[in-house]
Amino acid sequence: MTDTRALPGMVPSTADAPTVVGLWKRSEPMLLGTGTIALVLLLWELVPHLVTLSAGTKLFFATPSQIAVALWKMFYTGSIWHPLGVSAAGFGIGLVLAIVVGLPLGVLLGRSRTMNAMFDPFITAFNATPRLVFLPLLLLWFGLGMWSKVVIVFIGALFPILINTYEGVRNSDKLLINVVRSFGAKEWDIARLVVVPNSMPYIVAGLRLAIGRAVLGVVVAEFFGSEAGLGVIMVRAASSYQVDVVFAGLIIFATLSLAMTGLVKMLENRLGRWRPQLSNEN
Amino acid sequence: MAQIEARAGTIAGDARFVGAADTAPRQSFVEKNRNLLLGLLSVVLFLAAWEAIFLVVPFNKLFISKPSLIFEGWLDLISTGELFHDLAVSSVPFFYGFVAAIVVGVAIGIIMGWRQRVGYALDPLMTMFYASPLVALAPLVVVFFGVGVSGKAIIIFLLSVFPFIFNAAAGVRAVDRLLINVVRSMGGTEKDLYLKVIVPSVLPYIVAGTRIAIGRALIGVLVAEFFAASEGIGYAIARFGDLFALDKMFACIITIMIIAVVLTEGVRWAERAAFPWRVGQ
Questions:
Q1: Within an 8 Å CB–CB cutoff, is residue B33 touching chain A?
Q2: For residue B10, is pLDDT > 90?
Q3: Domains with residue ranges and CATH for chain A
Q4: pLDDT digit string (tens) for B132-171?
Q5: Is A144 on the interface with B (CB under 8 A)?
Q6: pLDDT tens digit sequence for A185-231
Q7: Which residues in chain A have Cβ-Cβ distances shorter than 8 Å to B216?
Q8: Which of A126, A129, A242 to mutate to test the interface with B (most CBs of B within 10 A)?
């Protein structure tokens, strides 16, 4: 982003001195950002006061304050913990399975051109396809319980981890690999000593993408085929016009997703200051 | 071929060289298409193994299908025209939603990238929307807008607009200020500025955004049709699942896989062809 070739006249005049102007300049992005969000929430809250909504529209309308009350009630009565636990279990098992399978497979495909060529059609096909198409099939195979959800999360999270591990392995230093090999290292040692540590930043970046996909997987799996979980609560609320509960569920999902992605991003920043630019496909 | 023979003739005394000249073209064909051949081989092996496993394992029609039956079901769907009808029904909201997402997303993105303050103001809000699983709003949208084209198109729009916003903004921010100044110094008009600097700089980002948005839009189609629809490809998958017609269900799933691969790889190919300088980014 920073253009080192900027012409003298174009240098932005950011005041470093702690003047009022400097303070405003530094906090401007944050103030404007939170300001917009506050404004949107305020307008949303005021809509029913400014416009008279028809009875039909009212059914589909919930103000931020109503949503906040619904959210507070969920936590206060503790009715949220069981469904949240069910969702989290599906999310966790699926993600761990994706890491357990994706990491070794990514290293293998990165190290072997033959294996990569053989797996490539399947990876391309499954990565491009929305995993939701498999849901009716998975419901037939695994039923309405936990496992169809786990498989959907697994399929969604597997490919970012697999593809990023592969990229990381492909980009690891050939010289280091040759040195280790000259000292008599086996393929296992190469993976352990050179390849995996080298591709760590890529893997963590893949994990960040995988979390987003896994959360989406939990939501859709619970929408269409589950008996318990946060997604189930949201669908039931939508069909009984409890719009506030739907939005409360959406906020919980979004917060968890943002929090986990933020944590992984911190890890990413620590691990890979030298990391090359990665595509942020979702 | 004549060239090779001529070369072989000149070094006819050395059998090794003749052999090398003989096998060189064939080897290079295999070498050149090695990845493609290996890929084809593994797909064929996979299908053969899938077909063959039911010689050992008992075949349960209600639980699993096999390639031969899937192919028959696929031909059946094509000959009755069901498949094309469902695809046509699904493609209408896909088209509306996606075009709306491109128009709105690119417009918002360019403004966010061009005006720094607008960027500051909208970025956190958009990030929040992008991070939250908007699929979760699908039930509300379906209940509110019904099961027709508009409901589906809105879900597709909601899911696919954000990649365009973020990528267009990133593209505008990445425009080289130096190039703008150069064009201005050389007496370029506003039109030159857009055609020679801004569009070539932003377009690759938008195309990259398209690739991401396609996947999300396909999810939108399926979500909308799983929830409530009376026709469409997503509905067909769910219905064949309910009917335990697994051969036709697999046929529809594979059709969607093919469409998804063709769309994403098509955009990737277009990206490579149109913006070769961006390869590897």
A1: no
A2: no
A3: 75-271 (1.10.3720.10)
A4: 778 878 877 877 787 778 888 999 999 999 999 999 988 8
A5: no
A6: 888 888 888 888 888 888 888 888 888 888 888 888 888 877 788 88
A7: 282
A8: A129
Which CATH architecture describes the domain B72-278?
Orthogonal Bundle (1.10)
Residue A158's pLDDT band (cuts 50, 70, 90): very high
The complex's ipTM works out to 0.74
Nearest alpha carbon to residue A276 among B167, B211, B280: B280
CB contact under 8 A, A219 and B122: no
Chain segment A237-281, per-residue pLDDT in tens: 887 878 888 888 888 888 888 888 888 888 877 776 554 544 444
Q: Is the pLDDT of residue A16 over 60?
A: no
CA distance A250 to chain B (A): 6
Conformation bin of residue A252: beta by default, left when phi > 0, alpha when psi is -120 to 50: alpha
B125/A129 touch (CB, cutoff 8 Å), yes or no: no
Chain B residues close to A42, C-beta within 8 Å: none
Instruction: Please check whether residue A240 touches B, CB under 8 A.
Output: no
Instruction: Give me the residues of B, 182-201, that contact A with CB < 8 A.
Output: none
Sequence ranges of the domains in chain B: 2-65, 72-278
